[in-house]
From TrEMBL:
<dbReference type="InterPro" id="IPR036986">
    <property type="entry name" value="S4_RNA-bd_sf"/>
</dbReference>
<protein>
    <recommendedName>
        <fullName>RNA-binding S4 domain-containing protein</fullName>
    </recommendedName>
</protein>
<dbReference type="GO" id="GO:0003723">
    <property type="term" value="F:RNA binding"/>
</dbReference>
<dbReference type="GO" id="GO:1903108">
    <property type="term" value="P:regulation of mitochondrial transcription"/>
</dbReference>
<dbReference type="GO" id="GO:0005739">
    <property type="term" value="C:mitochondrion"/>
</dbReference>
<keyword id="KW-0694">RNA-binding</keyword>
Amino acid sequence: MAVAMSIFHRRSTDLFKALVIRFPKQYFCSIAGGDVDEGKERSSDRLGSDSHGKELDLVLACLRVDRVAASGFGIGRNKIKNLIASKDVFVNKLNTSQSDLVNEGDEIDLTRSKEKDKVVMSRFKVLTIYKDLTKKAKRRLVGVRYGSMIISREEFDKDYAHPSK
């Protein structure tokens, strides 16, 4: 809170707004008024909800996995192509090929690092794909890019489908 006050006193309102948006409401508002339900977690306070990710509005020529993942994660297409070939990209917890198409609601997971006890991943979730094309005949979609997720190696091996060799 002291950081927020010092930022506010320096009149750096952009940083103050970013700080206020990052933390849940109960850090800045009084709960005495009773506007927060006791014992219930609001969906906006859960990790992995839309408030903990960065919403992106993307315009793409096609909805292939390599193009959507490259734009969603901010990585070059050649690097994504190599990650797909090395089986580090999953769509809805299944391994994918670069020519597969993305649908609304799909979650694209990118494995950042695999260690013996944990796996670090990033996630991009496709929220909306607009039916109409832009003036240059491209597709528009809205998605959310989440930060790094750390999951246990056992959970990763259990949930994510690996190709049988």
